[in-house]
Design brief:
2 domains, FAD/NAD-bd_sf, oxidoreductase, Flavin_mOase-like, flavin adenine dinucleotide binding, alpha/beta, FAD/NAD(P)-binding domain, flavoprotein, about 15% strand
């Protein structure tokens, strides 16, 4: 019979779940990982769509805690593609013999906190029920697929896909393909498949500012240089703002001449990477409208130079703020110079509905298609939490709690008041940064917090047993009454939410409709979902919480 109780249950076997398992096992705890997928990988297990690629450079899109593996594990290009990331995570799991602690094809359906016994009761899709003192969720920021509300989707007789749940194989050769959505995922898919399909129609919801990725083969000299500097590289990453491996600029855009701005933007365009273009060039592109417009003007000019058809260029050219998740690509705009690639602006000509044969537009145009792809993103950050029943004290669900607080709120992006011994990796109001360094930061904080709680629990049990023995009474057979309870204060959660709001107050990201503020899902409240203070500042906050004896938490 399968073991029903564990010290800790980790939900998700992606970057976060793998490292959390490793850390807790090192601490001597019994740990189980469950995942709805058939194997490890998290986001990178599901997102197998053509062109899927990390937009963080290869040398830091990995774990920092195994120096030998950092130096010796191979990577051939500046950016990792989906198969590369998946293979790397599989390698780490095998290297540390972690798979034996994992159970796949097992989806969390309900988690209920049992106050009397201080344990979580977790029910799974397999019929398994586990109990655990701690539950750590590594559900991912971008996992719950978001389909737009378009009439007739169910009528389409061709192949229909969402990029967030892609099949293992596909064949689009000589097929007519339509893609709805052109954010980061849409840009990657369009760039990857344009050359292989008979016809490609991009149904564009919002024009995007995208810059080259700068991808290409890595030379031995480059790799040797990285290997020799890994200690200083990670030191810089952990103390930076966005944790992408470069020093963020401290120079305001309008403090230099127009010629200097042009040169800086051109250098960033040549070197590649969306986060570099946004944060390495100048310090105020995300907060100053005049500075932001300078960056916008540069990218618009590039689009006009690249795209040969004036009407396609017009549709592709954005005119709002450059204030969404910064994109980079491997030749996105160039694809629209192909005669088989067209673009439809949904702001000018909305989709009327999906038919058996394709897409019907408001102006009466019908696009007959063999394949329809939705690159429409995710119900980001909290979507995976509100779709399942996670219930804390008094049976209150996370969804109900967040309805009362006016949106998804946490303390430090990790804990929620009223949900004892529940931890989130990359939960709401965590840092807006490169994901692996943020995951490492949070996993290490969670592991250290659990270790501290376990020490307190042992001390209480020891003291209780001593009292029991001195009274010649039997020691309690169930020590759960003295088990550690880690719970954020509501006041701390409220304060952290206010900090995140204040930091984001001047951000131009607030003035655009994107998933970063929850505006990509119709009917969803526009709300703060991230801490914009940077990874270095966030790590400092966590250190202060620990050094103060876990300020913001109920006493252990």
């Amino acid at each position: 019979m399968a073991q029903p109780h564990f010290d800790a249950l980790v939900v998700g076997a992606g970057f976060g779940g793998i490292y959390q398992l490793h850390k807790l096992l090192q601490q001597g705890l019994s740990v189980k990982v469950i995942d709805a997928a058939g194997d490890v990988g998290g986001t990178w297990y599901w997102n197998r769509y053509p062109g899927a690629m990390s937009d963080t450079e290869s040398y830091i899109y990995r774990y920092s805690w195994d120096k030998d593996d950092l130096i010796n594990y191979p990577w051939k290009e500046h950016y990792l593609k989906q198969p590369d990331v998946l293979a790397y995570l599989e390698h780490v799991v095998d290297r540390y013999d972690l798979r034996k602690h994992m159970q796949f094809n097992t989806e969390l359906q309900q988690a209920q906190y049992d106050e009397a016994n201080n344990v979580w009761l977790v029910q799974c899709s397999t019929g398994d029920t586990f109990t655990a003192r701690y539950v750590v969720t590594g559900l991912g920021l971008l996992s719950k697929t978001n389909y737009p509300n378009i009439p007739g989707i169910e009528k389409f007789q061709g192949e229909l896909y969402h990029t967030g749940n892609w099949p293992r194989t596909h064949d689009f050769k000589d097929k007519r393909v339509g893609i709805v959505g052109n954010g980061s995922t849409g840009v990657q898919v369009i760039t990857a498949i344009a050359k292989e399909v008979r016809q490609l129609v991009s149904f564009q919801r919002t024009p995007q500012y995208s810059v080259p990725s700068g991808d290409g083969p890595v030379s031995k000299e480059y790799r040797d240089s990285i290997n020799s500097r890994y200690d200083e590289i990670w030191e810089q990453v952990r103390n930076s703002v966005v944790a992408f491996g470069f020093e963020e600029s401290k120079i305001p855009a309008m403090s230099v001449s127009a010629e200097e701005r042009e040169e800086k933007f051109q250098e960033a365009w040549r070197r590649g990477n969306g986060f570099r273009f946004m944060f390495w060039t100048f310090s105020d592109l995300t907060v100053d409208e005049e500075a932001n417009e300078e960056a916008c003007r540069f990218v618009r000019k590039k689009i006009g130079q690249i795209v040969q058809d004036p009407e396609k260029a017009r549709k592709l050219t954005p005119h709002d703020f450059y204030a969404r998740r910064p994109l980079c690509d491997a030749g996105y705009y160039e694809q629209f110079n192909r005669p088989n690639v067209d673009i439809v602006s949904l702001k000018e000509n909305p989709i009327k509905g999906i038919t058996e044969n394709g897409v019907a537009m408001s102006d009466g145009t019908q696009y007959d298609l063999d394949v329809l792809i939705f690159a429409t993103g995710f119900d980001a950050v909290d979507g995976n939490y509100t779709r399942i029943a996670i219930k804390g004290r008094n049976g209150q669900s996370l969804k109900d709690h967040w309805d009362k607080t006016g949106g998804p709120t946490t303390y430090l992006g990790v804990c929620v008041s009223g949900f004892p011994n529940l931890f989130m990796i990359t939960g709401p109001n965590g840092p807006f940064t490169n994901i692996p360094p943020t995951i490492e930061t949070q996993v290490e904080f969670i592991a250290a917090t659990i270790a501290t709680a376990e020490e307190h629990g042992r001390a209480k049990n020891h003291a209780s047993n001593g009292v029991a023995n001195s009274n010649s009474a039997a020691a309690p057979s169930n020590s759960s009454a003295f088990g550690p309870v880690i719970e954020a204060l509501q006041s701390a959660e409220d304060n952290w939410t206010q900090v995140c709001k204040e930091i984001s107050h001047n951000s131009l990201f607030r003035k655009t409709d994107s998933w970063v503020f929850g505006a990509n899902v119709p009917g969803r409240k526009h709300t703060v979902l991230f801490y914009f203070g940077g990874l270095g500042a966030y790590r400092k906050v966590l250190r202060e919480v620990v050094d103060s004896g876990y300020q913001g938490f109920k006493p252990l």
